[in-house]
Amino acid sequence: MLGALVLTATACGGGKDSGEGAGEGKGKGSEKAVTQQSKAVVTIAPKDGAKAVKTSGALEVTAAEGKLTEVKVEDTKGRQIAGTITGGGASWTPSTHLAAATTYKVHAVAKDSAGLTSAAESSFTTLTPQNTFIGNFTPEDGSTVGVGMPFSVRFTRGITHPADVEKAITIKTEPAVEVRGHWFGNDRLDFRPEEYWKAGTKVTVNLNLDGVEGRSGVYGKQSKTVSFTIGRSQVSTVDAKTHKMVVKRDGKVVKTIPVTAGKPGYDTWNGTMVISERLAVTRMNGETVGYGGEYDIKDVPHAMRLTDSGTFIHGNYWGGGAFGNYNASHGCVGLRDVRGGWDKSAPASWFFNNSMLGDVVVVKNSHDRTVAPDNGLNGWNMSWAEWTK
């Protein structure tokens, strides 16, 4: 039994040559297992934990002794910030501004010349602005409008950084068409295509204004998506000389209506105008448009606004024999109607019920000048070259 135990122990321990071989092999294996470290160094600005970070110009990721291969920036809701790697992998910058009062996490990876990678992470929070602005827009989300309707934004504060604000508003259309913006002063920005919209076009606008510095120390606080659809095409042409209006629907004449335009001294604007407001009944007072007490009509039916300065196309029940014969208004375009607007067969009632916001009304052969492009939604009176200048 003792001999058997000794023999077993010797067999389990192995011989002298076997032990030395195992020891040498183990030593060499340990040397090969040493992990090589990447030479690439990733730097993230702002520093981890930074507060009150500016929404533009502060975020940048760089790599030394290597090239950036991945940069991911997202807020606490998982919304990512797009960006671009430049300089052959030396740096990354965001393609847009950051939202205000928001915490972001940054994860970046770089690779050195040997193919070894290194990574860095950071978290920071953007500033909370003391002064803000929004943009009041037309048309409304979900609406169907005529082919002349621009997307118009009127800002609550004057904008001194227009390029940054305009960049934050993106428009996509189906079918695709080029849409460009034009500033009227420093508080209004309108967008339109070169020609009238095509009927049936679907338009989606992304107002990514949250965090945009519109003027020094004043930041946007709006993040909204607006969609609207272009309805059928309707363009109506008023001839102030013949006192008639021709209504075309999808290029075909559907009705010719006798009208009365502005009388001498109160001539109607010439040019292309867009219906921007519809009122079944309204009050028209000459004092509101600089005509003193020349008129005050409390129950004007079927009124549709064409300019901010007070030009309407509306029902008229006091015009007598003017319709189709002579111009008798204070600058508006009048169509025969009845007091209260109850007669659905009246021309004004028909036109009101067959029109929508964004429809086009063109006035020609009047003795006044062409309406200003910013007097209402009337940017169509500018050439495309002027619009995009």
Order of the strands making up the biggest sheet: 22-27-19-20-21-26-25-24-23
CATH superfamily of the largest domain: L,D-transpeptidase catalytic domain-like
CATH class of the largest domain: Mainly Beta
> Architecture of the largest domain, according to CATH?
Beta Barrel
Based on the model shown, name its key terms.
single chain, 389 residues, mainly beta, Immunoglobulin-like, L,D-transpeptidase catalytic domain-like, 3 domains, nine-stranded mixed sheet, four-stranded antiparallel sheet, 5 helices, 12% helix, elongated, disordered N terminus, peptidoglycan synthesis, cell wall biogenesis/degradation, membrane
How are the SSEs placed, and which strands pair?
Layout: H1 2-13, H2 16-32, E1 41-45, E2 60-64, E3 67-75, E4 83-86, E5 91-94, E6 103-111, E7 117-125, E8 131-133, E9 135-138, E10 144-145, E11 151-155, H3 162-167, E12 169-174, E13 180-184, E14 188-192, E15 202-208, E16 213-215, E17 218-220, E18 223-230, E19 234-239, E20 244-249, E21 252-260, E22 271-274, E23 277-285, E24 296-305, E25 312-316, E26 333-336, H4 347-353, E27 360-364, H5 384-387
Parallel strand pairs: 8-17, 10-18, 19-27, 25-26
Antiparallel strand pairs: 1-2, 2-5, 3-6, 4-5, 6-7, 9-11, 11-14, 12-15, 13-14, 15-18, 16-17, 19-20, 20-21, 21-26, 22-27, 23-24, 24-25
Biased composition (Basic and acidic residues): 17-31
Region (Disordered): 15-34
GO molecular function: acyltransferase activity; peptidoglycan L,D-transpeptidase activity
